[in-house]
Design goal:
Layout lengths: L1 H23 L5 E4 L2 E3 L7 E2 L1 E5 L2 E6 L1 H4 L8 E4 L4 E4 L1 E6 L1 H7 L3 E2 L6 H14 L6 E6 L11 H5 L7 E5 L4 E4 L1 H7 L11 E5 L5 E7 L3 H4 L7 H18 L1 E6 L7 H10 L5 E7 L7 H13 L5 E9 L29 H13 L4 E5 L2 H17 L8 E4 L8 H7 L2 E4 L8 H11 L1 H4 L5 H6 L3 E4 L10 H10 L19 H8 L1 H6 L17 E4 L16 E6 L2 E5 L2
Helix pairs in contact: 3-8, 11-12
Length: 563
């Protein structure tokens, strides 16, 4: 009898203890359940539910266990059996210009002169006036000889200045009115890192390469702060709609930090911002150091942080301005051009790395990539132990002997998969300029990954859409969105769905020094997640681009709900 009483007493004590534990279990603010959760956390890659409290992940695991965190005020989100992922990180955007361009002429996808002219004409008719007509997104193959002419733009915009940026952002097309306003004629000298394209008689054609675009762009009135702020609000909505929860701003964002701060303070900043400072040749001066240090000290929270610098080392292969080791296909001399003196660039990288500052370098051609790797390696030797996480942006054509250096040196390959869209109108000029040998190493994501390198995926918005789903499809298939070519363009460079998702999540988090707080759905990390319309792991890869984001949560707050 005494044994029975002892056992009963122990049972009561155990039950009381269990009840106490249950009572102390923290109540979640939100529970996302009835889901197929891919966490990107190798310790628990798959789960059924996510519980959120105070803006962070409280619990990830079975639905029944998650619901034990349900309190009187807990909101329960039924994901409807859909796939849940960590929020996507775009590792290369120009968020200000992308947002502003949402209200301008979108020429993306146009393949003929007629299509280009039709879109411009429709905009002009809908927006009469005397001000500048601006657009973006044309590609070289749409025009005879792969280069636009002012006469084609004059035909639809004869009486207003017009400025149309190429999709790659490295060339511009202007009309006669714009040339006259800027005073560009036969006598105009080419800038150091640019070229005014001319006809056989020396007359400017209206095509401007690289820095020559600035000869006209400087005459375009800058948007007011309020106009920019209004555009940013639209851009934030667009990013949330696409499932992007953090971006790395690499041009234009540093100058707009006060506007982003205003949005943050209003509670309207629905995308987290990591911002780099742009530095031009010959490198940082005292004003640059002061500006960076002040901004870094002022902006370093979860929503808005200054981290790193952006350097522009060369142009693009499509127009023959990317810096190559050997002349472009069919040319005897032109190897493109470095936009920095090699010694200035090496010195700048060393100076930044010595202060623990990450360098993100636009390096597209194999010569520019090699110089970046050389500079990063020298910086590492001098500053052993510093975890700066230098990045190479784009890295479109890496010399075979340099691919393994990404992994060996810990250099992050910051790639934009949509740039590798094998649709002829997009990639045709690239292939023609590179030639067959260099084409084989085009956009070598898998080779970098297999060599121990890290990938961080992004868009380069507004060069292409901020929507990551077409890009993810191309990363996985190496086909255009119509499924061509069969088997994929250079299929050896494909990555898996899991590898692509990692590059958009943990890869981006690591690249932005955010892996402790973001990139996976792990207890303790920020509750940034997205719910998708379809399971990208289960659907035919050719349908990934059709993915829609039905819910976006940032910091535990639902910023978009389209269920």
């Amino acid at each position: 009898m005494r044994g029975m009483k002892h056992t009963a007493l122990l049972t009561v004590l155990v039950l009381a203890s269990a009840a106490a534990c249950a009572g102390s279990r923290p109540a979640a603010d939100t529970i996302v359940t009835n889901a197929r959760v891919y966490t990107v956390d190798p310790a628990r890659p798959w789960a059924e539910a996510v519980a959120v409290k105070d803006g962070r992940v409280l619990f990830v695991g079975p639905a029944k266990a998650a619901l034990r965190h349900k309190g009187a005020a807990t909101a329960v989100v039924d994901a409807g059996g859909r796939l849940v992922l960590p929020g996507f990180m775009d590792s290369h955007v120009h968020f200000v210009s992308g947002s502003l361009n949402l209200a301008r002429i979108d020429l993306a996808g146009t393949k003929t002169v007629a299509e280009v002219q039709d879109r411009i004409r429709a905009y002009v008719e809908a927006n009469p006036g005397t001000g500048w007509v601006q657009g973006r997104g044309w590609m070289y193959p749409a025009f005879p000889g792969n280069m636009p002419h002012k006469a084609l733009l004059d035909a639809v915009v004869p009486d207003r200045p017009a400025f149309m940026r190429c999709a790659d952002g490295h060339s511009s097309w202007v009309n006669s009115k714009a040339l006259a306003l800027a005073g560009i004629d036969r006598a105009t000298q080419d800038p150091a890192n640019g070229r005014v394209v001319r006809d056989a008689n020396g007359e400017p054609t209206g095509a401007l390469l690289e820095e020559a675009s600035a000869l006209v762009a400087k005459f375009i009135p800058e948007p007011t702060p309020e106009e920019t702020l209004a555009a940013l609000r639209v851009g934030l909505e667009e990013a949330a709609r696409r499932g992007v929860t953090r971006v790395h701003g690499l041009g234009g964002e540093f100058e707009a930090l006060d506007l982003f701060a205003r949005l943050r303070d209003e509670g309207a900043l629905t995308v987290r911002m990591t911002v780099a400072m742009w530095v031009d040749e010959p490198g940082p001066d005292e004003a640059d150091w002061k500006a960076y240090d002040e901004a870094r000290a002022k902006y370093r929270d979860e929503w808005l942080a200054v981290d790193g610098v952006k350097l522009m080392l060369d142009g693009v292969i499509d127009s023959g301005t990317g810096a190559m080791l050997d002349p472009y296909e069919g040319e005897k001399v032109n190897k493109g051009k470095l936009f920095w003196r090699a010694e200035d660039y090496m010195k700048a990288v060393a100076a930044f790395n010595a202060r623990g500052i990450q360098v993100s370098t636009h390096s597209i051609g194999d010569a520019a990539i090699r110089l970046s790797l050389d500079a990063y390696e020298a910086g590492q030797r001098a500053e052993a132990g510093r975890d700066v996480r230098n990045k190479i942006e784009h890295a479109e054509d890496i010399a075979a002997s340099d691919i393994q250096r990404f992994g060996r040196l810990g250099v992050i390959g910051s790639f934009q998969p949509l740039h590798a869209n094998p649709e002829p109108g997009w990639i045709g000029s690239w292939i023609a300029h590179a030639g067959p040998e260099r084409e084989q190493r085009a956009f070598a994501w898998k080779a970098v990954l297999d060599g121990g390198g890290r990938l961080a995926f992004g868009s380069d918005w507004p060069v292409v859409t901020v929507d990551p789903w077409p890009a993810l499809q191309i990363a996985v298939t190496r086909q255009d969105l119509d499924g061509k070519p069969e088997g994929g363009w250079l299929p050896q460079h494909k990555v898996s769905v899991a590898e692509a998702v990692h590059a958009y999540t943990m890869g981006g988090a690591f690249a932005m020094h955010r892996e402790a707080d973001e990139g996976s759905l792990t207890p303790g990390k920020l509750a940034d997640l997205i719910v998708l319309s379809q399971d990208i792991f289960a659907v035919d890869p050719s349908r990934i681009s059709k993915t829609e984001v039905v819910l976006t949560m940032v910091g535990g707050k639902i910023v978009r709900d389209a269920r």
